[in-house]
Amino acid sequence: MDATALQPVLVTGASGFIGARLARRLIEGHCRVSCLVRANSRIDELRTTNAQLLTGDVTDRGSVERALATSQARTVFHLAGLVKAKHRGDFTLVNTGGVRTIAAACADCAHPPTLVVVSSLAAAGPCGANQFRVEDDFPAPVSDYGRSKLAGEQAAAQYAQALPISIVRPPVVFGPGDRGGLKIFRPIAQWGLHVVPGRGDHSVSLIHVDDLIDGLLLVARKGERLGPHGGRGQGVYFIAGDDQPTYTQLGEAVARALGRKHPTVLYLPGLLVRLIGTGGDVVARFRRHPVWINRDKSVEVLAGSWTCSSVKARTQLGWSPAAPLADRLNETERWYRAAGWL
Fold first, then answer.
1. DSSP alpha helix (H) spans, the chain
2. Residues 62, 64, 67, CA angle at the centre, nearest 5°?
3. Rounded to whole angstroms, how far apart are CA atoms 209 and 122?
4. Residue 225, Cβ neighbours under 10 Å: how many?
5. Those residues with Cβ within 8 angstroms of residue 114's Cβ, 6 or more apart along the chain or in another chain
6. pLDDT tens-digit readout, 30-73
7. What counts of helices (H) and strands (E) characterise the chain?
8. Which of 91, 144, 175, 267 could be disulfide-bonded to 209 (CB atoms 3.0-4.6 Å)?
9. d(CA 21, CA 249)
């Protein structure tokens, strides 16, 4: 793909795992990249790039308008969002309000840019065994996080007549720089232990960060757009790899990437998972900082399988993952070790 067709570009959430990787890819493609970052964001990695760093907040209309005016963006990738929060209202403020602010500001531009909103499979909800979510399924999120992401999609749809908008719903994203995946790798690397919520028979879709970025670029260039009167799922894409391992199988695949034999699997009963999640909320209140293990996350992991089909992206966009899951896990393991994370 000729990424130069996308310049100039504005990226929100560029200090995060996916956003930083996307910004680098765009710069490598000779795009003129601007990044809207908060004043307290970790931007050391971004400082090593040629990206223009613009301080602001996606919930503040003024800073978003200034970023759009300064960047003169023709494409906006909106990745900024919260994946953990102390209060439900924080999810709503950022994951819903932030999308609304970005879309409204883009719509008011003299030449509205193409807007690609990165949502989540959590906005669609889980599914039963041996089933896959597709774009025109009726969404049924089960967590506060998922409901806030779906509300963000609905907020974006209100501006579908004013500018071209597409939505991408990734499943679990992993790869170099991902601290979430590290929570699976590290116990297996150190103790040969893989902790599994419930019975371990729920399946999960995954996507390597670079394969997701390939999809985002294709969606920006030639993706279907939301329509004011279109059918459910119009302008929406799932981007997922070929494999849908169970939680148990995922631990075995990570063990192989680490060069270890079968890990010892510790199955946590659902009641214990919920108690741990509640305990995480208590810890968050005392620390005044959200934690990864919380009630909202426990609801998600016990809700069923989290699998989705990327047939639409493959047929409409010509997208496909560049490498199988095993190769991507091996690549991630090598990065973790080189970075000193393992």
1. 17-28, 44-47, 61-71, 88-91, 97-107, 144-157, 179-191, 209-222, 247-257, 270-287, 295-302, 311-317, 325-338
2. 110
3. 17
4. 16
5. 74, 75, 76, 163, 164, 165, 166, 220
6. 899 999 998 887 777 777 788 889 999 999 999 999 999 999 99
7. 13, 11
8. 175
9. 27
**String of b and e for 144-160 (b: at least 16 CB within 10 Å)?**
bbbbbbbbbbebbbbbb
Residue 12 Cα distances to 67, 92, 124, 316, angstroms:
10, 17, 22, 26
Q: What own/partner pairs with CB < 8 Å and gap ≥ 24 does 64-71 have?
A: 64/36, 64/101, 64/102, 64/105, 65/105, 65/108, 67/10, 67/34, 67/36, 68/10, 68/105, 68/106, 68/109, 68/113, 70/34, 71/8, 71/9, 71/10, 71/32, 71/34
Q: Which two tokens stand for residue 169?
A: 């719903």
Which tokens belong to 220? 């920006």
Burial grade of 35 (CB within 10 A; 0-12, 13-18, 19 or more) = buried
Residue stretches of the chain with pLDDT short of 50? 1, 4
Alpha carbons 118 and 12: distance in angstroms, whole number: 10
Q: What is the pTM of this model?
A: 0.94
